[in-house]
Design brief:
Elements: E1 4-16, E2 28-31, E3 34-39, H1 41-50, H2 52-57, E4 63-67, H3 68-78, H4 84-92, E5 98-102, E6 109-119, H5 121-132, H6 149-154, E7 170-172, E8 175-177, E9 184-190, E10 201-219, H7 220-226, H8 231-247, H9 254-257, E11 265-271, H10 291-309, E12 314-320, E13 330-332
Parallel strand pairs: 12-13
Antiparallel strand pairs: 1-10, 1-11, 2-3, 3-8, 4-6, 5-6, 7-10, 8-10, 9-10, 11-12
């Protein structure tokens, strides 16, 4: 039976704009007939992958790029004991096609992979060792290595080598406010210190505030399969992801909004299926001073109803900083580190 760890958090952000659309506007979504502020799953996953919490927990992160020459220079610095021409030959034969692109302004020619893909210094070093041991360069296109944890969690699609494809072990939802969102506009000025009056620039930016529901589900068995390990072996990274979803926020506009907040409520469940609780907020919570407490109440009630109605075998642990939550189906803890399965 497949084991899923479902992560549910409620995190309150004051004025912020951590995720924008292609027009530079606050990302939103209509849910339950009302407009909600939104943070995309891609935005949140990148923030987690770049965070100190995640970096300290893993041996290596992938390098996602299409820049051949920059990756080559990085590999040369990381592998000073290996001939640079050999490293270059390995990169040229790993699978992704390489094309030349000329900068129209400078005339400089750069080499680019045909797509942004995740690379890992460890895997490249492994390929170098294989060639040094006698493997032909052309066979590297079919070489499959154990992926880094971020690739094992988020997946990979490599059209040049389908054998390298990795099915994502983690599903992440777009974060939505539990209540209707009021998108506001901030008029800002950049003052010219040497001007007698007026400003050097006037602009606008959207922002909003609210309680966001974050949800992710990790297929523990698939994660273990992806990294060629056991479920017990991947438990530390699963616990790290729980911590990341409660403490990490995107970095956009943080220098001007400083919305550095951590979750007020965490519910982590272990069951035999993914289980989103987003429908607890289909009817928007009234946006008052108790919006967090009411959101917690709605989330717990929805969890209990779903588990009872569908007779789901689910084990739940929760952390509630508001001290307002009540449920006999949840084992309450006082520290996040106590939420482990």
């Amino acid at each position: 039976m497949t084991t899923f760890i479902n992560i549910h958090t409620l995190i309150s952000h004051p004025s912020s704009m951590m995720n924008r659309d292609d027009s530079g506007l606050q990302k939103t979504a209509v849910f339950g007939g009302s407009v909600r502020s939104r943070i995309s799953s891609q935005c949140l996953k990148r923030a987690i992958r770049q965070s100190d919490i995640y970096t300290k927990a893993v041996e290596e992160k992938s390098i996602r790029t299409n820049k051949f020459d920059e990756l080559l220079q990085l590999c040369i610095r990381e592998m000073p004991d290996v001939d640079s021409k050999l490293i270059e030959d390995v990169l040229l034969n790993l699978g992704s096609k390489v094309k030349n692109e000329k900068d129209k302004e400078t005339g400089e020619v750069n080499r680019l992979f045909d797509a942004v893909q995740p690379y890992a210094i460890g895997s490249i070093r492994e390929a170098v060792n294989m060639v040094q041991a006698g493997t032909e360069l052309k066979t590297l296109k079919k070489t499959v290595s154990v992926p880094t944890y971020d690739v094992a969690l988020s997946g990979r699609m490599d059209a040049s080598c389908p054998e390298r494809n990795v099915e994502a072990a983690m599903s992440v939802a777009h974060s939505l406010t539990t209540h209707s969102a009021d998108i506001e506009v901030d008029w800002f000025t950049a003052c010219d210190d040497l001007a007698e009056q007026g400003s050097g620039h006037i602009g606008t930016t959207e922002f909003s505030s609210g309680v966001f529901y974050r949800y992710a589900s990790i297929n523990v068995d698939l994660l273990a399969e992806n990294v060629k390990a056991t479920a017990e072996d991947v438990a530390p990274i699963v616990n790290t992801m729980v911590r990341c979803f409660t403490q990490v926020s995107p970095s956009a506009k943080q220098k001007v909004f400083a919305a550095h907040n951590q979750a007020d409520f965490v519910l982590v469940t272990k069951s035999n299926q993914p289980l989103s609780l987003a429908n607890a907020f289909r009817k928007p919570i009234e946006n008052t001073g108790e919006v967090m407490e009411k959101s917690i109440e709605s989330l717990i009630k929805h969890y209990e109803k779903i588990v009872d109605a569908y007779e789901i075998d689910s084990e739940a642990k929760g952390l509630d900083l508001t001290e307002s939550a009540e449920s006999e189906q949840v084992a309450w803890v006082n520290k996040l580190s106590d939420i482990q399965f």
